[in-house]
Each structure stands twice: as structure tokens, then as C-alpha cells.
Write a structure and sequence with these properties.
Elements lengths: L1 E6 L5 H15 L4 E8 L10 E5 L9 H15 L3 E5 L2 H14 L3 E5 L1 E5 L2 E8 L4 E6 L5 E5 L14 E4 L29 E5 L7 H10 L3 E4 L1 H5 L20 E5 L5 H4 L7 E6 L5 H5 L2 E4 L2 H15 L2
Parallel strand pairs: 1-2, 1-4, 2-3, 3-10, 4-9, 5-9, 11-12, 11-13, 13-14, 14-15
Antiparallel strand pairs: 6-7, 7-8
Helix pairs in contact: 2-3, 4-8
Bound molecules: flavin-adenine dinucleotide.
Length: 310
């Protein structure tokens, strides 16, 4: 029996449940039992065999040291063969800490799993995404972090057994709450069916892009340099260090098509690339290529759509 534990991230519940598919693949031909660890989560999530429930003071939920303590205690109690954590900003703080405590290897940001007999190969981008590394983890538990939206669980119907996990010997949290504010609701580019994405070659104000996105019932996304130039928040960055998206239509405006950017495109139905360079790698992925200035293209399309959709 292959026992896997998934840390359920409150902010990414669907993506956490999708890790069931990664855990199932990791089990290979072995029978799998897949547990979820929910902290302050009373909702029963279909798909897990067992869902562990832990109660914490709410202000400690984002304390990666506290969450690491909990995972360590859970692992000591149940001895899982593998622990899977989403590679979100928070997951990236927890996973290496836990790996250190458990003296286990961590394979971060995996994008594929191959199992042959007893050998489990974890695939992840290496050398800035220019190569794929195939890593065999020989320590136990096999610890992996997985980018959201890479694995997708089929429709899950099984209701988990709910178990309360009592905490022992918790260290004091290092977080002191000085003030609190409501999180501004914003969109998630992973939900969009149409994405209009600006790269460094899009040389116009971002509100022009916002207008186009609204006319197409879509959302705005960007490449990394646009975030680095502080023209957009990191939440809307596509790629290896951003989000993985699967829209029906991806409009790439002045995007070169680096490996790290392309890594964020999974199961995209159609890509339109607008670039002044006909040889840009993005054009080879695209169904339709427009060779020209991206800002002019957006301007003209905005005007034309306004006429058509009047
Ligand atoms: C560890 C690591 C992680 C990374 N993670 C990410 C990530 O998550 N996401 C990401 O995007 N990148 C990421 N990068 C950066 C990545 O390597 C590229 O540098 C980046 O994707 C390039 O963005 P770009 O295509 O917008 O810009 P550029 O490479 O500068 O390309 C601009 C493109 O616009 C075209 N262009 C120029 N002017 C115009 C114009 N007027 N009209 C139309 N086209 C024009 C150019 O021909 C070119 O093709 C990462 C890099 C590293 C090392």
C-alpha cells in the first residue's frame, strides 16, 4: 500500500484536490491510500480516502513554521510514503522546511511523474527551464511540490473519512498580528477562457489591454519582464515562476516565447501571436501570427470590436 499525504491549501482548494491525480500516478501499480490535511477546514473534500482535520488559531494559518510543525507531527504519527505540497508562495516556504526536518529529499515544482516498476521519476524544469530533469528520489518520504494547474483529478465522488488530529507540543508562533485588512477581490487568470497577455514588446499603457480583455470577455495576463517593470502584479504572470493557465484563446502580444513562459501554457486551444519578429519562438506555437506592432494591433482591434459589438 502506497500512502500519500496532500497538504490542502485553503486558498487553492481545487488545486489541492487535483494533487490526488499526482499522488495516484506516484503510486504506480501499487494500491494507494491518499490523505488530505486540512487546517481549520471542516468542509469534506471528495476524493481523499481520509481527511485529517487540525484546529489552529486563525492568525497562525499563514505561519509556515507552525504548518511545518503540524506536518512533522502528522508524518511521525502516520509515516506516509510521500508528501505533496502545492508550489504556491506559501507551499514553497513549507516544503523545504519540512524536507529539512524529515531529512528527506524535496523535488520542487514537478511537472510530470513517470513510474516504471519500483522507480519513480519526478520530472521538473532545470537550468532556467532549458532542460527537463528526471529525478529519482531515494529518501522517504518522497517529498514533492507541484505547480497548481499541472495535474487534474478526474471527477471525484468518494467521501473521505474525517479524522481529528490533536496537536502536541506546538512551538509558539512567530507571527504577531498588528493590523488586519480585507483582501481585495481580484480575478484569477487560471479561470479565464480568453487571456490577452502582454510581453516586453507591448509598448502601450495597460488600460488599453484591459479594454480589449473586457470586449473579449477575458482577462489580462503578462510575462515576467512586465511584472519586473512594475506595470502589473505578479498574480497575473504566466510561466514557470508565475501561473499555469489553460484558456481557450491566448493572445500573446509582444511575447518572445521563452521556455519559462511557455511552461505556463497548458492545454491552450488557440494561440494568436503578435510580434514584430516573424521568427519569435511564440509564433511557432501559434495558430495565427500577426507580424507587426502589438500596441497598434490592440488599438485597431479595440476600435473594430467597438464597432462590431455596438
Ligand atoms: C528561473 C526563471 C524563471 C522565469 N520565469 C518566468 C515566468 O514565469 N514567466 C515569464 O514570462 N518569464 C519568466 N522568466 C523570464 C524568461 O526567461 C524571459 O526572459 C521572459 O519570458 C521574456 O519575456 P518577454 O517575451 O515578454 O520579453 P522579451 O524576451 O524581451 O521579448 C519581447 C518580444 O517582443 C517582441 N517585440 C518587441 N517590440 C515589439 C512591438 N512593438 N510589437 C510586437 N512585438 C514586439 C520582440 O520581438 C520579442 O519577441 C524566467 C526566467 C528565469 C531564469
Amino acid at each position: 500500500m502506497f500512502k500519500a499525504l496532500i497538504l490542502i491549501d485553503q486558498d487553492f482548494i481545487k488545486d489541492s484536490v487535483d494533487l490526488i491525480e499526482a499522488a495516484t500516478r506516484l503510486a504506480g501499480s501499487q494500491e494507494a491510500t491518499i490523505w488530505g490535511l486540512g487546517i481549520n477546514l471542516t468542509e469534506q473534500l471528495k476524493g481523499f480516502d481520509t481527511q485529517l482535520h487540525v484546529e489552529l488559531p486563525p492568525e497562525q494559518l499563514k505561519d509556515s513554521r507552525v504548518i511545518t510543525d503540524i506536518l512533522e507531527q502528522v508524518q511521525q504519527e502516520y509515516a506516509f510514503d510521500s508528501i505533496l505540497i502545492l508550489a504556491t508562495d506559501f507551499g514553497r516556504m513549507v516544503a523545504p522546511r519540512l524536507a529539512m526536518r524529515l531529512k528527506a529529499g524535496l523535488v520542487a515544482d514537478i511537472t510530470e511523474i513517470e513510474v516504471e516498476g519500483q522507480e519513480r521519476r519526478l520530472i521538473r524544469p532545470a537550468f532556467s527551464g532549458n532542460m527537463l530533469a528526471s529525478i529519482v528520489c531515494e529518501s522517504t518520504p518522497i517529498m514533492v511540490s507541484v505547480h497548481p494547474n499541472v495535474f487534474h483529478a478526474a471527477e471525484l465522488t468518494k467521501a473521505p473519512e474525517m479524522l481529528h488530529f490533536p496537536l502536541e507540543k506546538m512551538k509558539a508562533s512567530s507571527i504577531e498580528v498588528l493590523a488586519s485588512a480585507e483582501h481585495e477581490a481580484s480575478y484569477d487568470i487560471r479561470d479565464a477562457q480568453v487571456l490577452v497577455a502582454a510581453g516586453a514588446g507591448f509598448k502601450a499603457p495597460m488600460d488599453k489591454l484591459q479594454r480589449l480583455a473586457e470586449q473579449l470577455n477575458g482577462s489580462v495576463a503578462v510575462s515576467k519582464p512586465v511584472v519586473e517593470q512594475r506595470n502589473a502584479p505578479r498574480e497575473i504572470q504566466v510561466g514557470q515562476s508565475g501561473k499555469t493557465v489553460s484558456p481557450e484563446l491566448y493572445l500573446a502580444l509582444g511575447i518572445y516565447g521563452s521556455m519559462q513562459h511557455i511552461e505556463g501554457l497548458k492545454n491552450v486551444s488557440d494561440i494568436i501571436s503578435v510580434n514584430i519578429d516573424a521568427g519569435a519562438p511564440m509564433n511557432y506555437l501559434a495558430n495565427l501570427v500577426v507580424v507587426g506592432d502589438a500596441a497598434t494591433f490592440v488599438e485597431k482591434l479595440n476600435t473594430r470590436l467597438k464597432e462590431v459589438l455596438k
